[in-house]
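Why show two proteins at once? Because comparison is the fastest way to build intuition. When a single record is shown, students tend to memorize it. When two are placed side by side, the eye starts asking what differs. So, the first record is below.
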Amino acid sequence: MAYITSNALPADAGESFQTLNGSNVLKVCIKLPPNIHSDGIWDYIDHGVHNPLEATLPRLELQLLGVLFLTQLLHYAFKRSGVPMFVSQCLAGLILGRTVLGQNESYSRIMLSYHSQEIIDTMAGFSFGLSLFLLGIRMDVSLIFRTGKRTFYTGATSFLIPLVLGLLAVEQACRLWGLNSDEEMKLIAVTIVHSASVSSVLANLLLDLQIINSEIGRLGLSTAMVSDMLSVFVTGVIILLKAIQTQTVVSLAEIASVLVYIILVVLIFRPAMSWVVRKTPEGRPVKNLYTHAVILGALASSILSIWFSTFIFVGPLVFGLAVPDGPPLGSAVLAKLDDLVNGVVFPLFITTCTMKADLFDLAFDAHLMKGTIMVVAVITIAKFIASMVPSYFCKMPIKDTAAFGIMMCCKGIVEMGTYVFCADNGIITRHMFDLLIVIILVTRTTVTIAVKWLYDPSRIYAGYQKRNIMHSKPNSELHILACIYKPSNIPKIINFLAALGPTTHRPLALYVLHLIELCGTSVPLFISHRLQTKTVLRSPYSENVILSFKCFQEENEGITQLNTFTAISPPKFMHEDICLLALNNLTSLILLPFHGKWSVGGFLESQDTNTRALNCSVLERAPCSVGILIDRGFSGQLTLRGNSKPSSLSIAMIFFGGSDDREALTLAKRMSQNTRNMLTVLRFIDKNDKGGTDWEKMLDSEVLREIKPKEITNPRVKYKELVADGRQAASVIQSTAHKFDLIIVGRRHNLETSQTSDLSRWNKFPELGVIGNFLVSANLPCRNSILVVQQQQTV
């Protein structure tokens, strides 16, 4: 027989509440020794005893199977409607918990009894502690000190104004319904929790909506970080004042133990982990000994939290904040725990939280419940308005302002976990817990749908003017955004830029963006190196990028303007950084490296799927023209060091017609003005073409007019017209491709003629178009390079 204090869960069959020493306790019968393993189904059929589900391990396995299966099934059914995984996990808990299946007495006796819930709740609590530890690693506290005034004021007002108005609403609710001081404290606890905007919850929302790299996403994360820190500070002050008011030794000892723990983490553990980072060679993984030591430290911090009677999850969160984010240590710890915690165990915590709720037992007529609804409504409205006002005065569009205000009202797993802790410890009642679970579920669903409806990140890329090379003024300054994925991209991009031959009459405005995969932190960063003198990155790669392009600028001093940037974000959202930077700087061309790596013999030996997906995303959304540079190695290598003069470059432009080919030809003509370049334009004319005067042909003739022999004024330019079908065109290209160092072609997206139809079987990479695919195929094992150009589409 066991007596267990319980404030959150009702009694089931075989269990009963009774009063013991003035406390409400739950009377539970426990078999000793506990039956962990089952004797099997056949023993149960033969003897009618030892039900397999009464054993601990089979029951736990069945619970895990039910949670994961039902969660995935619901998510598969609702994901097309834009419902996030969090909502599916909550719904699975309501179905498996007391709200739906728990109404059945047999199911409740086996799956929802105290003995049944004890182990699965322990696993869920353990997973939540590890999740907060990982959250601490991802959080960059220094971001708070780097935010601007706009972000700080928005974060402060979005927390303090709802908090103040919520406390006034608590006072008003106590007057209206005659609530006592104990009920008032319960409403104050709800006010503090609900007033904050948690950065991890907001990050999950932004990831679900795929806008974490957008301007509104960055603003929201920075604002939530400020709100996080303010809420922690206010909570600490309230606990301290309460301890001083009660003047109990235990309360003061708890506060002192937390302060001592934080000091130890800051002065001992943080420097020790920073020493590990310094000791690890650049580019090398950290030793497993150190990552295992950090994980053990997180588990030890949970034990210390329990020993000193503080909130069990304070220890892991503080310890996670002390771990240096990013590679090598933070990313190594995340790699070991992330899939297990977030993929398997963490969803278990969300589901078990909602399993405790019984929505059929909600009592809306109770005065405390009315007060809870009133307080939550006041806080939500106040937070929405307090978040909108600063953004509106900063000239943010009204739809984006509304989306931002709604986004800041989002609630999720952190609030849910806090309310579970409050319910288990009697800080709030079970009926309040049921109501708050419903509020969190409704809020998350409506916020997701509303933000998706109000905010479309792709619409900002739709320009109202033509931003391409063809429609730029002749010999005007050419704005190019060059993207660097890997250090090996640097010499290839510089070689191409040198081939452009910038001069005082044809200057170059160069924007270089180094893209780094987000790892070990949840906050994407965008760094302008022009605005800071000291880099915040540990990796030397951005420094190498900056130095390399500075050398290029110095060699072209006075004719090249350079701006360098670094973007740290998830690979599937990097295109947002590229397109937004191109939009803000009015670039005419985005230069992207190809995703493949070439062997010495000119064959494709490996591919990077993330880079390929990124290039495809840029092609779809780019606000200007895009060029994909496929570098097999210039046969005439350009020399960029010292005072030696670069060697000559032989360039071919293959022209079939269409907007992409016209853009590519315009770029080739600009390159032909470089006295070190030789340009050959190969125009292929369909032998079945009977002529005509359609608009596309007229545009083709106009762009070719300066190239034709009778009007040519540049002896370094050759023009050839070839009447050929598809097979003949392929044969000509195959026989002449090796003669050129660089071949420029148009992508010709969704444009197919009889000349190119025979080449479509080589269309392995649709982002390169038919001609581009033929040039990179195994049939042409050349050591030249190819530039595939797509003209601006979003106009």
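Second record. Ask yourself what differs from the first in the token line.
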Amino acid sequence: MVWLKRGAIALVGVLVLAFVVLATWEPFAASAAPAAPTRTYTAEIIRDEWGVPHITGKTDADTAFGVAIAHAEDDFFTLQDVVAMARGRYGAVAGEDGAKVDYVYHLIDARGTAEREYPKLPADTRALFEAYAAGLNQYAEAHPGEVKLANLFPVSGLDVAAGFALRQPFFFGLDGVIGPLVAGEELRREHGPDIPGFPRPPLPGGEPAAEAAPKQARARVLPLGEDAEHLGSNAFAVAPKKGGGVTTLISNSHQPLRGGVAWYELVVESGEGWHFAGANFPGSPFPFLGHNEHLGWTNTVNTPDMIDVYQLELDETGTRYKLDGQWRDLESKWVTLPVKLGPVVLPVRKEVLRSAHGPVIRNAKGAFAIRYGGIGQLQQLDAYYRLNKAKTFAEWEGQLSRLAIPSTNFIYADAGGTIAYVYNAAIPNRPTSVKADWRSVLPGNRSDLIWDGAVAYETLPRIVNPASGWLYNSNNTPFTAAGAGSDLDPQAFAPIMGIELKQTNRSWRAYKLLSEASLLDRRALEAIKYDTGYERQGYVARLFDALAGLKAQGKLAEARDLLLAWDFNADGKGRADALALLIIRDFMAADYNNKPFPDVAEKLGAAADHLTTHFGRLDPPMGDLLRLRQGELDLPLDGGSDTLRASTTWDVAEDGRLSLKHGDSFIMWIEWAPGARVSSRSVQPFGAASTRPASPHYTDQMQLFVDHKLKPVHFWRDDLLANASSRRTVTNSGTKAR
């Protein structure tokens, strides 16, 4: 039996060796680290009483270096996730969900795009990214105990750029196309008439219009953009004539409260004229929205038809596709996806395909190629940087007109009183001379259907200084933006562009309240921004019509009657607010994503069961149900899914409470008053140090957020120094406190 014992020992040895290999292979297989930069950077980081960093450098690059240091001090945990995504290694951190991101990273060739396009960027833009990478490397080197994935650092500017290339298409729904294709599901075709021709969208108060955008399934599967099932942001601009002499811009983006697309507030300044207050996402050296001395802007997600899908005709080998009568080889590359499973990381091999159209996904129904607006482009890195430093509307719009930023609405205001709305989108320049149903899956064997580039900027919806004196967007059609007499005519825009016609409840409410106001001063705008009402329009009307006709008994009938007596206001004061909060979200999600209307009795029963199980009643105060939670702080919230005061999605805790995870996030209120320099106020849901429980700024803004209050933004240096809580200089070689 000696041989059996020896065999068992050998088997144990093999298993131990296999475990060691699986636990350690991934960092060694990662791409070689770039050479460390030789340039020395120096920045000053001053934090105000709320811990918000004001980063100053002699050059813009020095400031970008400081941005990375400051952000890492507050949230190095999330920054590492973003870096892992940018290097195709997120699966080694987040397991299967991370591996899905890594697959898309390879599928859309994010690294290849960065390698081709990053060297083409202007030298000063690249200098910004190299400096930001140096800041990340400096922090990682100084804090090795915080690094959660070996060989993740150092990173280069190209790595940071690859992260932009990965995220870029997801804000207009690419993941909602990739997901169904990978799963072999049908792409859900959105509501709307066939092209050509589509109806005018009604003004709020009429029946909701159908969608015109094509074939886009919006059930997103990746943590890269706004939660598409509960998409939301609000933006408002008011001209002096309507605002009592004050120009106002309100940024009210709805992002996840935590993670890779949660807002981080900062102020940047340099000796080269860069001075901007606002917020960015982890992995960016500059703010994406906010203001400088002269002007400001904010964004909301729009959903034009930016994506076309082609079904390829393959030969019997499945390795070639036909195009214009000729067989072409599918480009094929095998990649290894790391998938963390407990203490080990499994290597999963995956084939990535590409055709002349773009990325290719093969499933049981065939092979499908995807082409989308901004494919293979990376100029947005330069455009955002230039927008930060623009001084006039003409200069600012000149950057937008490049269509380097593939999508998102822009709402603008400036010190001179100009306000503007631009439906920014690099909509594919589809040929009108060919016959095709662009709203369906296209034949992949015709090269005349493979468009190149975007439509002209001049063809996009755009409003400057409307007669109404106000502009808004709440993820609705651009054809309701400025009020009766100032709105654009949808018939003036080509249907082939696929501009959405959808309204949201936030749009119904904003349009009504803005139109009714004789003066939009601070008090009036605060009432609109924090409005918690619902209009009985669209999916809300359909839901309550169904409730009115619902035959029920017992608890279900009691719940129905409670809702039918509701005042359509999620302010937390009504008996039915908690029940309405629970039931409305699913109907909103179905409407947003063009899914079948949910079963009203089923949803009502589930909501009633939840409340009686956890609260012992159908009518608990809504603030007992909906909570803002971080660390030891647990506060009640108001608002609902698709209200202007947005409490959109949540996690359900063991105690039955709903912990907000997506909704009102970073809010910024900017004003240019006569004879005064620009001033602004802001708030975050938690605090500046979003993943540092030991920091005094982990939860210090929560009560402000709950109470509908804002804190000052110390944009000007004299104001900042009067309110500074810390001040130090950071360089490549260390930190010096002052």
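One difference worth noting in the second protein: Residues 1-30 form one domain.
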